[in-house]
Amino acid sequence: MKSSLLLFLLFFALLTPAAFAATVTPDELQTLQGGTILVKEVPEEVKGYQTFLAHAVIAAPLAKIYKVLIDFSAYPDFMPNVEKVVVRGADQQVARLDYYLGLPMGVKKRYRLKMTYQIAADKAEIGWQLIPWPELSAAETIRDTSGYWRLTPLPGDKTLVEYRVRTDPGDIPFGTGWIVDLQTKGSLPDILESTRKRAIK
Question: What are the tens digits of pLDDT across the range 173-184?
Answer without folding.
Answer: 544 555 555 556
